Structure formats: C-alpha cells, structure tokens
Amino acid sequence: QVAASTIVSGAIAERVRVGVHLLISVCMASVVYPLGVRWTWGGGFLSDLDPPFHDFGGSGVVHLVGGVVALMASIIVGPRSGRWDPLRGPEFVPHNMPSVLTGTLLLWFGWYGFNSSAQGSMKNRDDASVVSNTFMVTTLGP
Known about the structure:
Elements: H1 2-11, H2 18-40, H3 59-77, H4 97-117, H5 125-140
Helix pairs in contact: 1-2, 1-3, 2-3, 4-5
C-alpha cells in the first residue's frame, strides 16, 4: 500500500497540498489497493484465468494500482505551472546532478536485495535460477 502511494506522490509532487495527498493515500489504502489485491492474490479471478496471472513478489499489483491512480491524479491536476513555457524552461532543469545519480544508484542497488528476496528461499537449483533471472532483469531494468 505504501509503495503504491509513493508512485502517486511522485506523479503529483508540488502540485497538490498535503491534505489532498493524504486523502488520496487513505482512499488507496482502504478501497483501491484492497480491490487490486483481491483480484490477484489468494485465489482472485485473475489467478483463475488461462493462463493464470502470477504476481511475483506483489510488484504487479503495486505498480498497476499506483500507476493507474498516478495517471488519473496527473490528468486531474494537470501539468506543473510553466512547465512547457520556453521562457521558464531553466527552472525545471535538475539542480544537483550528483544527488540525482546517487539516488538512482541507491534505488538500483536496493532493488537487487528487494527483488530477489521475493523468491523466499535458496534451497535448490530452481530457486537459484529464479534469483539469477531476477538479478539479470534488475540489471537491465534501469
């Protein structure tokens, strides 16, 4: 629930007040996210499809719910004021590239542990194969 809400907060950053963001987060946590979870996990109707939907580590539900709500919120809120004005373009250039790079590398490094830990164990060759595939996808992802 928290990860899905952070996707939304990034999409509408600096364009809504804190109260609006809290309201969106409460609605997501109490209604939207539980519906997405129910449809996929624990025998939801998506797992009964042919072929069945498998959500490895829960990333499908988190990113789908967060992405759809972020898209809807972005459409409702609209673009940042002056974002596409050629005279104000320099205001939207990243101000500290070392911080941007450091944050990107920290997230990327964290994904190695987070993504592979969804496997839950390393008891046999199949587990090792899944984790190695996860490492490969994590490497190619960013």
